[in-house]
Every structure is written in C-alpha cells, then in structure tokens.
Amino acid sequence: MEIGAMVIGVVGVAGTLGAALLTQRGTERAKRREIELLRGQEEVRESQVLRRTCYIDLNRDARQFTTALNRHLHAMQEPGVGGADSDVLEAAKDAHRDRYSQAQMIAPDEVLARARLVNRALYQLYGQVKRLERGAPEPGETIQTAVRAKDDVWELIAEMRAAMRQDLGVAGGSVSA
User: Fold this and answer.
1) pTM for this structure?
2) Nearest 5 degrees, angle CA 168-CA 173-CA 167?
3) Closest Cα partner for 167 from 70, 86, 51?
C-alpha cells in the first residue's frame, strides 16, 4: 500500500510539473509565432514604403527629364542655346539615371518593364536632341520628330505611373499624364 501511494504521489507530482512545462512551451511557441508574424507585417510595410518612395522619385525625375528635354528643344529653336539650359538638362538626366538604378533593385517585374520603356525612350530622345544640337542628326531626325518622340514619352510615363499605382494598391491606376 505504501509503495502504491508513493507511486501515485510521484506520478501526480510529475504530471503537475509536466503540465506546467507543456503550458510554458506552448506559450513560448505562441509568442514566437506572434513575433514572427509582426516582423513579417513590418517587413511588408517597410517594403511598400520603400517602393512608394522610389516610385514617387522615379515618376518625378522622369517627368523632370522630359520637361528639361522639352525646354531644351524650345531653346534650340531660339537663337543661341544657353549653357545653363544644358546644365539643367544634364542634371535632370543624371537624377533620372540614379532613380532608375534604384528602381531596378526594388520594383517588381511589371513596374520595371514600364520603367525600362520610359528610360529607353528618354535616352533615345536625349541622344536625338544632342545630335540635333551638334548639327549631326541621323537620317529622319528633326526638331519635329523629337517633339513627337517627347509626346510619346509622356504616354509611357503615364503607363509606368499606372503600373506603380497598381503595385501599391492605389485604386484607379489612371494613365493620364
């Protein structure tokens, strides 16, 4: 009888201690899962903020590069292109290049495909403008073809912006310039 009572007592104490350990382990696992979930949510939020900032800057810099090209085209039609105008164009080109490089590391494929089209069109237009400025245009290149190409860039920028808005979950990713 005494051995039976001892065994029952030992089993009872072991059960009580085991239950406490199991409860503690379960609580620790639940806390770890909660922390991992919160970290995951924070990473998603940080990624979206980073993309949004990049998209805002890329959209702005593409628009400023296009505007600088437009102003440069207008200045070329006027007598004597000023050096300051060229400096503004070069600064806008450099800013766009830097922002596009950042987008290449952040943007998903759909947005990057649109940004690539804008980048290519801007640099083709830039090359055409510079050749016209030097008086060495390629066959078919005129101020008028450059102006039409510039107008096409605005449409590409609008499409890029719509892809960015869609990626960010902004309703109504409009394509108007």
Assistant:
1) 0.73
2) 25
3) 51
